[in-house]
Amino acid sequence: MGDQRSGDDQEAAQRAEDFQRWLLDEHKVSLSELGLELRCSQSGGFGVFATRQLGPGSTLAEIPSAGILHAGRVRETAFGKQVLQLLARCALAPEELLWLYMIWGRAQPQESCPWRAYLRSLPLEDPLAALHGCVASAQWLSGTPLAEAAVAQLVEQRARHARLLAVLGDDGFPAAELFSFEAWLWARSCYVSRAFGWRAFPEGSLGDPGFQSDALCPFLDALNHNRKAQVEFVFSPHSAQILLASSAEGGYEAGDEVFMLYGAGLGNEALLSRYGFSLPRNPHDRVEEVAFHLPPGTSPSAAAERLAALRAALPAVVATQAAPGLITVKLSEGLRRRVDETSVELLRAASLLASGRDYDDLEASCAEKRDAAKATAAALRGMLRGTAAGKAQPRSGLLLALRRRRRTRAVLQAALKSGQRKTSSRPPPPPPPPAAGATGRAAALYAWGRRRILRDAASCATTEAEMAQLAAQMHQGEGGEEQEAEEQSEQEGFDGQSQAGLSLTSVAAPSQSSSSSSTAPQGPGREVQLPEAGRGSLGEDEEVPEYHVQVDGFEVARRTRHVMFSLTISRGDARWPIRRRFRQVVKLHEQLLEGLGRSAMKEGLPRLPPKVTCRSWWNGPQDDRFLAARASRLQTYFEALLRYIPYVDQCEALREFLCSVDVANMSYDALLDLGQALGRAGPQAAQVPAEAIAALPRRGEVSLGGCFCCVICQEPMQKDEDIRFLPCGHEYHYECIAQWVPQSNTCC
């Protein structure tokens, strides 16, 4: 076996030497001048290595346009013209002509085919053998999307090859025996795994635009893949180049293998299907499609309704009925390794297919979260059982998994009782079992990585279902104690707010403020403002209530961790801010229910946002997404409430809730508007004209009238200022009284 390996190495070295000589003789490309060489790499096959230091901006590979092989170039050869003539009735595709030329060219002498040295530098075996019937690979790919795609692709290519070969044989093509199905798959695999897309080249540089294929770039396609490689591609009408990016960190030293990037974010499924290899622990691995088995007894009509509901609720996903009772869902982002939380998209799909109800992550109860998570876990475990990697776990491993699950449940119960969140510490996954050959290893790595993703996602969903179940039980048992503590804390907060607010019956004239903002004050904790799109609005045909509530955002206090919602109340031109906790809204709702008693109007009150959701149990009551959803629901609640109770002044509880104002951050003009708004009880007096105010008598320099301070602005009155007398005898600055009287129509 050692002699055979030595002979293979010598033969590979000879092919690499012939190829480098061909580059220099035919296309004037000197690898030594570029500081590069071609030789066998550790991963098998050829690789490009640096012979000197290469820094950012260095050329890693280059080939002139005359050295690029594509269908347009083959079309001009004698071989291409003959084949196109023989296969005219078969509608030969441009890439198929290139494949036939690759098969023919590698078996010809250099004199007959000028591309022989390059074609012989390509892999001797099928690069995509894992998808083309390899026994070891087929076992690992069983139950994966690649297995079904590979079978369909193999059937299609076999039928196409048989048709073309039959025509070539009937017409007496001299080298028809060269074009076996194995050779056809080899040429196609080399093309798929090595060709550069034709769209990357300038228009017209690859021949007739109506007959062009992707291009094979000798030497450029010899660079192996590394996900951390930082390269730049330059395709011009004269050449194709790969450069080390000028922004790259570091470079290559002599002896280092030079890499390129086949594509960003390529998981093992893409790498195996396009290039024939897989990477261990690929961080870009993901499972894009999840298969759901509908509950037993689901009728075809019910299955069709649930599928239609899923498509309507989640337009970003692709849902298809693969078989009766089986629906596959292609997720928009897919599942990845080591997930900490099941995606809402997956939970919604599971809930819609299992029960026909949509799942709202922000308002779902613990029972709804439990059911959605259980359906998700069942689907993922079913996919695990259908794969070879999922069946590879020995019985002892299953027993250990069951014991681990029991310990996890005990830890979750203890964590919930102590008020702590779950902390996950999964053991490292076992290494994939050995597989014979590089092809088998690539398939095993892909299958094992897929298994890890499904296992992690199923474990996460199972844990969430158990957490939701425990949370529901604890919420039922401890709801009374929590309610009592919250009400006591809320009462203290509400009393403090009321004492700092304004009276409902009188508004004192405050001092002028330099700030005119009506937003709620910022506290020491974090504050979140809602976007305009998330705020409420009325329809065009709806009657505008006299009062309007705008929920602007929320703030989490750093010390007490209480959540205060910032609201802006408006009535006519007056606007004032208030800050309320959710418990105060609940208290208002309870007061309204108590006031209505057994009246039929009690049933028409809008529904409050939920006090507790599974998300608030899972992530805590200060979770930003939960609070943002609550703020949005509060906006809807207040709009519906003010439409249902339009006469706020006749409802004491609602008026007190809306009009207990914190005046610390209100400007003088805003307080004037507020005073007028809150004072609208009886008929409005006629407006005082501006001419009458201007005609008020002016105070003389020697008269002080016993008043040294303007009670509107609270500033002292100087002798040189414009001071006016009112009929009641009071004195004010003219600028102050000119603003006050038109708005209040009163002096005192």
Structural notes for this entry:
This protein has five domains: 1-65 and 217-278, SET domain (Beta-clip-like); 69-214, set domain protein methyltransferase, domain 1, CATH 3.90.1410.10; 287-476, no CATH class; 510-678, Phox-like domain (PX Domain); 690-744, Zinc/RING finger domain, C3HC4 (zinc finger) (Herpes Virus-1, 2-Layer Sandwich). It is built from 23 helices and 16 strands. The chain has helices at residues 2-27, 31-34, 71-75, 78-86, 94-105, 116-121, 135-141, 145-170, 181-194, 268-275, 300-313, 344-355, 366-385, 388-391, 395-417, 437-499, 582-596, 614-619, 624-644, 652-659, 668-678, 690-694, 734-744, and strands spanning 36-40, 46-50, 59-64, 224-225, 231-235, 239-244, 257-260, 287-293, 318-323, 326-335, 526-529, 547-556, 563-571, 574-580, 723-725, 731-733. A four-stranded mixed beta sheet has the order 1-2-7-4. A four-stranded antiparallel beta sheet has the order 11-12-13-14. A three-stranded antiparallel beta sheet has the order 3-6-5, with no helix packed on it. The radius of gyration is 39 Å and the shape is elongated. The model is unreliable at 1-5, 393-400, 420-427, 429-433 and 480-524 (pLDDT under 50).
